[in-house]
């Protein structure tokens, strides 16, 4: 059985076998846990799907991993703050409705 895409074509895109292995594993985990695919796949397994994405150029190693980590953390913090703001608005609305209900009685 021959691997498609071949290791030689993948190594044209990623400079190291080790980097390729790590990138494939990370992307396969992302796909398994529900990440949005970047293309249609021929393969069924997530590991081979990850290789197809790497081969097509849709997935690559980030040139500045520290900046990527900082961006991910900043996005998570922004999402958390947005969630807290949404919960605060809901609590205010509930309190307002209870207050209006008390006035009607």
UniProtKB/TrEMBL annotation:
Known catalytic reactions: RNA(n) + a ribonucleoside 5'-triphosphate = RNA(n+1) + diphosphate
Gene Ontology BP, a term: DNA-templated transcription
GO cellular component labels: DNA-directed RNA polymerase complex
Keywords: DNA-directed RNA polymerase, Nucleotidyltransferase, Transcription, Transferase
GO terms of molecular function: DNA binding; DNA-directed RNA polymerase activity
Enzyme class: transferase
The enzyme's E.C. designation: 2.7.7.6
Domain of life: Bacteria
Region: Disordered, residue numbers: 82-105
Summary of the function given for this chain in its UniProt record: Promotes RNA polymerase assembly. Latches the N- and C-terminal regions of the beta' subunit thereby facilitating its interaction with the beta and alpha subunits.
Protein name per Swiss-Prot or TrEMBL: DNA-directed RNA polymerase subunit omega
Source organism: Streptococcus pantholopis
């Amino acid at each position: 059985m021959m691997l498609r895409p071949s290791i030689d074509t993948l190594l044209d895109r990623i400079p190291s076998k080790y980097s390729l292995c790590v990138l494939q594993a990370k992307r396969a985990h992302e796909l398994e846990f529900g990440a949005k695919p970047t293309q249609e796949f021929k393969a069924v397994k997530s590991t081979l799907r990850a290789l197809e994405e790497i081969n097509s150029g849709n997935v690559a190693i980030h040139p500045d991993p520290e900046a990527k980590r900082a961006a991910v953390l900043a996005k998570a913090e922004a999402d958390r703050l947005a969630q807290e703001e949404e919960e605060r608005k809901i609590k205010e609305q509930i309190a307002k409705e209870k207050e209006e209900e008390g006035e009607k009685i």
